[in-house]
Amino acid sequence: MGRPRKPKNKLELEGTYRADRHGSKELPPARPEAPLDLSEQEQAYYERFLDLFEKHGVCTEMDGLAIAFLSKFLCEWEYHHRGSQGEGAIAVSDKGVEYLGPRFGAASNMWKRVRELMKSFGMTPSDRSGLTLSEDTEEDAFDALLKRSMN
Q1: DSSP string, 5-38
Q2: Alpha-carbon distances of 119 from 66, 80, 114, rounded to whole Å
Q3: For residue 83, what are the CA distances in angstroms to 12, 30, 94, 97, 126?
Q4: Which are the contacts of 105, defined by CB distance < 8 A and separation ≥ 6?
Q5: 32-36: long-range contacts (C-beta < 8 A, 24 or more apart)?
Q6: Which residue in 26, 54, 90, 133 has the fewest CB atoms around it within 10 Å?
Q7: Do 68 and 46 touch, CB atoms closer than 8 A?
Q8: pTM for the structure as a whole
Q9: Domain boundaries defined on the chain
Q10: β-strand partners of 92
Q11: CA 56, CA 9: separation in Å to the nearest integer?
Q12: Whole-angstrom distance, CA of residue 32 vs CA of residue 48
């Protein structure tokens, strides 16, 4: 399987966007409507993510379901994480052998899902580290004055 395509805004930031090669298939930024089946906590995460994504221009109408899943998975991870931190962290078998409780594994699986969705929205540092911003080549008046005075 090949490397996934970079989004247009990332290509533009890197200075490698070409209209003839990359086309203009992107949807305009928009705020998607929240699904109706979100709990109160999931809705709070949904709104927080939407505000963040809108601020950076990475949200379209089509992203509503993915943001809803990110919110649901994060709430479910919190639930299992809290359960694995208390008395349920270590379970004991019938023979007296200790092992990690099932909620620990559930929390780990939910965290993997959360991280995958976070990556798709560029929410991890490694997803943003590949960005190289084009440098400003314009010289300001102060730089020009310094250059002239040095000659």
Answers
A1: PPPHHHHHHHT---HHHH-S-PPPP--PPPPTT-
A2: 12, 22, 9
A3: 44, 37, 21, 20, 29
A4: none
A5: 32/59, 32/60, 32/61, 32/62, 32/63, 32/64, 32/67, 33/64, 34/64, 34/68, 35/64, 35/65, 35/68
A6: 133
A7: yes
A8: 0.64
A9: 8-129
A10: 98
A11: 10
A12: 13
Encode the chain (151 residues) as per-residue pLDDT tens digits: 788 777 777 787 788 888 787 776 667 778 888 888 999 999 999 999 999 888 877 788 888 999 999 999 999 999 988 877 766 677 888 999 988 888 888 888 999 999 988 888 878 777 766 544 344 445 556 566 556 666 5
Place of tokens 């994504």: 53
Query: Which two structure tokens, joined as six digits, stand for 97?
Result: 């052998």
Residue with tokens 């991280």: 115
In the chain, the amino acid numbered 143 is D
Please report, as a single letter, which amino acid is at residue 25.
K
